[in-house]
């Protein structure tokens, strides 16, 4: 059965088939007492489904694209740049692990800071500004200028540079920890709380779910993030709102231009938005939408509309997470290419008996039962007016599935014996096309 389901639905991984009972349970197709006892707790499945989605986001660098795009939009003034790093890190930490978010953001911070430092050093070395001798800053000689910098000013610049490094690194790790608190799946303790609520207080009637927790924790996360940003600004960067945040029409400094260039180069390395990134983004947005709309509290959610009150307990946030996780395994990572005419040639090139491909295609062409235009017999019967298109679709959909299963069965059982499909025949080495 699992093999047939894998063949029909084109699952990319056989293991993902074993998640289907968790999806079928709310439909009352399976008996919970006999099936769910074999699986983990609801909180574990919620964490597992969220983790699969997070891995998909990381696999296709969608999180990095979002981070760099936001940072380019925020700008490169120190205070705004720090706020941008903290906002992006906190947002990503809401959906993927704190560790993965920090590990992704810190190299970006490091590369940007190193480029800013290199630009600052080069600018200082190439600077030639003649000053009057009596100010003690420069001695002008014929044909050249020697600049003597104040040691106190140099030490202050070094101190500011070290403080900038410290502030930028700390803001990332702080934001990762703070952002994880905003969602129920953002960090481990939140999931543990949900599990304890379900175990110790089973009559709480889903009081603690994704929507209710987000409504409570997200404002707290925003306040905490803002206060952390202000504290780091005051402690490390001698915060000046007008100087650090407001663009007063002046040109960007060389360091800010260098930082912007680093971010732009990193973003350009990602290339255009890929087909896989679009699919992952759609699944990610679908996951968030289903979580919020399941039981929002201020209005009826799809949970109460789709199931009766005594049956709503079977569809939880974990059901949504597993559904989207399965969807990620079904959706392709590359844009499908329809290549009907070269299947025989491909089978010959890989040493596969051509009949193993040609026979199923031939039989399947006759097993089209859903629409009046599918086959001439369907059209003739439909023309008499006793059938509607919906009637043919209802019965024809099942007939199509039966046809696929029968073709699969016949080709892989007695068809193998009759046509010797397990061996590549000598007559298939050459293909003659008469024109």
From TrEMBL:
The keyword Transmembrane helix applies. Keywords: Ion transport, Membrane, Sodium, Sodium transport, Symport, Transmembrane, Transmembrane helix, Transport. One of its GO terms (cellular component) is plasma membrane. InterPro entries: Na/sul_symport_CS (IPR031312), SLC13A/DASS (IPR001898). Its main location: membrane. Belongs to the SLC13A/DASS transporter (TC 2.A.47) family. NADC subfamily. This is Solute carrier family 13 (sodium-dependent citrate transporter), member 5. The lineage of its organism: Eukaryota, Metazoa, Chordata, Craniata, Vertebrata. The gene is Slc13a5.
